[in-house]
Structure formats: structure tokens, C-alpha cells
What does this fold into?
Amino acid sequence: MGLYWVINGFIYGIWVRKGPGGGFLPVVAGIMAIIFCISALVSERKDKSPSNFSFKAFLPAGALIGMVLLSYATGMIVSMAIYVFVWLKYIEKHTTKSSLSLGIGCAAVIYTIFVLWLRVPMPLGLFEGIL
Amino acid sequence: MDNFNLLMQGLQTASTFPNLMSALIGAIIGLIVGAMPGIGSLAGVALLMPLTFKLPPTTAIIGLAALYYSNMYGGSFSAILLNIPGDSPAVCTAIDGYPLARSGKAGTALSTSTVSSFIGGTIGIVILTLLGPVLAEAGLAFGPPELALLILFALTSIGWILGEKPTAGLVATFLGVMIATVGIDKAIGQPRFSFGNPNLLSGVPFIPLVIGMFGLSQVIDMVVNKNNYKPDEIRKVTFRESVLKKDEIKRIMPATLRTGVLGTFIGVLPGAGATTAAFLSYLMEKRINKNRDQIGKGAIEGVAAAESSNNAAAIGAFAPLLTLGIPGSGTSAVLLGGLMMWGLRPGPLLFTENPDFVWGLIGSMYIGNIICLIISFACIPLMMKVVRVPSSVMIPIISVVCVVGTYSINNSMFDVVLMICMGIFAYLMSLASIPTAPLLLAYVLTPMLETYTRQAFDMSNGSLSIFVGSKISIVILGLIVCFCLAPIITKIIKKKKPISIEKVI
It folds into this structure.
């Protein structure tokens, strides 16, 4: 990332019309980021600190991406309700009743606050044409 | 004495039933809006303004002003309880507030935030009352070179919040600078690092960045490290136990008072705003507070510093607005529009031509601040229950709040996807022990640094001498040099210190 910023920074121009150009800060920041990244990498290797990486970390992001894609079909509010229900029922192993009530409750609160009160136009998905 | 008499008249004006109701409604809406991620004071004021068209100007502006500063109270709620800052000034509150909540001290954190907000707001109102016009004039003495140096001072201070691994913190700082350069270069109009995506032409939006890096990364941590989130193990604390004790008040008072004054003065500076005030005040306390080692890990001093200064800055922004017609922040720019809509011309003559309006507004701030304090305290027992909700329920709810909060800013799914990417990015940063706070600070300050630096060079025709051209510039430069050299000098002094005989024996 640092290298990309430095290369493009030179293209944007470091010094333009007696003042810093568009590339001044990207070049400075890119070079400093590269230097300190290498330094941090070297010290991490010396310390041999263990990594706690887990693929589980991508589960919430993946589920939210699924919710976003579903919202194009069902609308944001419905897809939220489905997301909450599915997460609670199949991942957190809650009962169907509690998952359903929380899913619907959450969607109802979001709808009341953001759609009815704040008038945020939420996507309606395929229902847009009908409604 | 004159000001005191005018203030008394103003309090009388503010105490009429319509004005009191306006302050109350504005305060309640501001608290709710502030607590909701993605909906900041700017959106709240813009939403409420049409409803005030039919009201008399004094009543209308009292309501809007109450919404603005009560928004600072509300922003701390979601920051402390969910680690999702309700608005950008609450980012620093989350750094210490959330760890406090996780350790069973949510009530203490909320009480600290409420009390500090009240005291900071009061300091701002008193300074505005006594020195309003003078402050505004002083604010004008800060031109582009002075503002550029002030921001550079803030960026160089990031070293104070780097924690145990300074190198990792510096990586985060420069990553923040790099992210801030995405978008159209304001001076030349040239797109930078937008990768051909029109959504990135105005830069990486702040709220998705913050919500992703704080809120979603928190959700990811809850999923990966489930054992760290057992709300049943958080001791049930009563409201009485959450009320600040004498020693806790003693601890937060110095930080609250210092940052209240600093926040007011920063709020006066055009363009600085409550976010800059909160960051700078937090950095100052991290450097000079007695308990500075704990700030950043869950110290009430950290919460007090951020909250006192952001409330003070919100009030401070009214000084240039009323006396010179120059808004000190984005929200006060919307308020300026409102003032002009009601036929009021902000400026030096406003105080003389419309004293009822001005002093009524200032009087209402005293009353509104007390209203916010009472309502916030009333909400604390309910808020404390949030911490004990099982993480299995919090995960999907926080995720949904993150998505809706992000979407509601620009009605853009791109922002939502960006928020998700930033959440993953923040998680990967945490694996590498790279702190996120320096990244956010650098991201907020870099655009202003770039703009003011360029303006300074334009004024001086490319000469560096403009940065030593005024007393203010020289003082700030001196501070930058001192604080950069201080750690090195301290190290050298410690090495040269002779070993005492007692230690040898």
C-alpha cells in the first residue's frame, strides 16, 4: 500500500506552483509507512509473538454481505429481520421463538426510528415497483 | 456587570414556557440522535430545522442549540456501551469508556461522561458569557499558518497514545494519512487514489470508517473471542454504586476543568470543531495527567477529558457564530443558515440590535445544560442493563445498527461495504497489535493540515518564513520541538543520572 502511494504520489506532483502538490503527503506518508512497517515486522519476528488469527473472523462480515445482497431482493428491513433470525437460530443456537421475536422486534425498531421518524429511504428491493 | 445584568434578562427570556419546552424537546432529540451511530448533530439539526419554521426565532434557535450540545451527551452512550461512537467527537470516549463498561463499570463511565459533559458545557457557557466577542477576535488571529502548525502539533502528539509499541502506532498514523489523501485534491481538483470509483471521489467517508473500525471490529472480536464476553460474569451494579464517589470526582476534576477550557478555545477556531477538541484534549491528558499510564486502557480520566472538551467546544463554536457570523463547525454553519432565515444577521451588531435573542440563547444554554444532565442521569439505569445483554444477542444487533447507521448517511450501499471492509481491516490491525486511534486521529487532521499548509504557502508565495511570522506560530513551533525532543532528552538524562549509593548497597 505504501509503495503504491509513493509511486502515484510522484505522478500527482510533489511540489506545484510554490507549494506542496497533490503527491506531497502521499509520498511522505507512503515512505514513512514502508519504513515503520519493515521495522515493526523485524521486531515482531524477533519477539516471535504468536498469531491468534481465526477464519471465524470472516463470519460476521460474510453474513453482512449476504444481508446486503438479500436486501436487493427483499428490501433492507426484511433482510435485516432474516439476518438476525438466521444468526440467532443457526449460529447462536437460540430457540425459534426467541430468534423470530428478536428478528421482527429489531426490524420494527429500525423501521420506526430510521424510516418513520428520520425518513431515511431504505431500499425496498423487488417491492420498490409494487410500493 | 453589564453582561451579568444582560444574562439575568436572558435567563428570564429563556425561562418562559415555550422556550423551556423548546430546550427540553431539543435536548431529548439531541440525546437520542447523538446516541445513534451515523446520525450526528449536523443531521439532527438539519432534520429538526423545518419543524421550527413556524416558531419565533428565539424559541427556534434555543431548540436547535439544545439539540446541538445535547448531541455530545448522547454520543458517549453508544461509545461506552457498544464501542460504536455515536458521532466523531465520541471516538476518544470509546477508547476508555468501553473497557470500563466491559469491566463492569458501565454506570461509572456513563456518570463520568455525564458529569464531565455538564462541567465542560458550563465552562464553555461561562467563557462565552464573559468573553464571547473577545474570543471570536482572538480566533481570527489564527490564520492558515497558525492552524497548520496547531494541527502538526496534534499529529506529532500521537506519540503519546502509541502505547507499548511506538513503531506500530506510527504505522497506524501514516496509514491514516494515506487514507485521508483518497479523493479529489481540493486545491488542484485532481482525483487521488479513487481507483476509478466515483464513490471515492469525495474521499473515504468518516462514519463508515469509524463504525467499521470500532463497531464491526468489536463484533468480529466477540465472535472470535467469545469467552471474553460473558455478561453474567459482569457484576450487577446498582445505580447508587455507579454514582461517582468522592475520590473518583477528585480524579476527574483536574482533567475536566483543563479540557473544558481547552475545548472552548479550540471550538472557537473556525473549522476546528468538537472532534479536534476531543482529540487534542485527550492527547493532553495522556501526557500530563497523574494517571496517564491508565488512560487508553479504561481510565475515567480519559472519558472525562474527551467529554468535557467536546461539550465545551460545541459551546465555543457559538462565539464566532454570533459575534462574527463565522461558523466554528459544520453544525454551526447550518445554524447560521437558520439565523439568516429568521432575519437575524450574526455579527458585532447582533449583541446590540437583538440583545433579547442573544442573551436569551446564552441563558437557555445554562438551563439546557441542566436539562441534559438530569435526562442523562435518568437514562443511566436503563443504559446499564445493555451491558448485561448476552453477546449472542448483541452480535447481530450491533451488526444491524452498524449497517443502518452507515447506510443512513448517504443512502449508499458502497458505504456499507466499505464499513465491512474497514471492520476486517481493523481486526487484522489488532492481530498485528497496531492501534486504531492514531489512524483515526491522523485521518481527521490530515485534510485540514493539507489545506492550511497550502493556504499558508499561497499567502507567502512559497516561502517558509510565514511559519515563523507571528508570535502564535513561534510558540506552537516551540511546543512541537519541545515535545518531539522531550522523550530523547529524558532518556539521555536518565542514562547520565549517577547511581545512588543506597542502590549499590
In short: Residues 88 and 99 of chain A are 5 Å apart (CA to CA).
